[in-house]
Prior knowledge:
The radius of gyration is 21 Å and the shape is elongated. Helix content is 38%, strand content 22%. By secondary structure, the chain is of the alpha/beta class. It has helices spanning 5-17, 24-33, 40-49, 69-75, 92-106, 121-126, 147-159, 212-225, and strands at residues 54-59, 62-67, 85-87, 112-115, 118-119, 134-138, 140-141, 165-169, 178-182, 185-189, 201-205, 227-228. It folds into two domains: 5-68, Arc Repressor Mutant, subunit A (Orthogonal Bundle), CATH 1.10.10; 76-228, Endonuclease Chain A (Endonuclease, Chain A). The strands form three sheets. An eight-stranded mixed beta sheet has the order 3-11-10-9-4-6-8-12, covered by helices on one side.
Amino acid sequence: MEPPDSVLLDALERAGGALRPVTVSAVTGAVRDAGTNVSPGTARRRLSSMKRFVSFRTVGGKRLFILTPEALKRRGAFKSPHSAVFVRPGTSWTTQQQLKEFLGAQAKDGHLLVIDPYISEETLVCLAQVAIPIRILACHIGERGREADFRRTYDKFRHELGRDVEVRRLPAEELHGRYIFTGNRGWVVDHSLKNLGGKPAVVIPLHLDSVHPEIKKYFDDLFASGAVY
């Protein structure tokens, strides 16, 4: 039985086909890694027929495949808490919606801790589907000095939506990177949440059990030392 289209598209993405054209061999190898088999001829025929989601070109007699922009938009960047994510530039709307849904689905235990030097009202929008307590540690609050706008949204977020959220602040020299922690999971984000999707960015999961608890404890303690906003 031939695998469904979704299996081939997943395999194409895992083989690197979201970023660059890849060979059929790379795709069939990714299919095998997922526990399924498909012949190179079948994979080539099926991928070539998915013109809406896959484009291809021939180089040196080999057909190379890559996911189309529509495929990337429909599939979304945030599919698994265990996979690194490349956020393409110019996808602010789509990325923000996906991030909101992703955090809402992943934040189930304990509290959600967001470390982000630059926050604004858009940061709170990203957290709108989070049901557990939220803790945010920042340095710069409000977009381009509009701190009063953030304060109004912050008060509405807490009182009108009934959210348990607390913002604390540190001096700019004490905070640099962006991190997200919830339960026993964590991610490094190389861009502020409020602007994610505007420029190229990467979201990397913290897999190592020996590293995640140490980093999370450090930032939990750092949050406790911050000034209550």
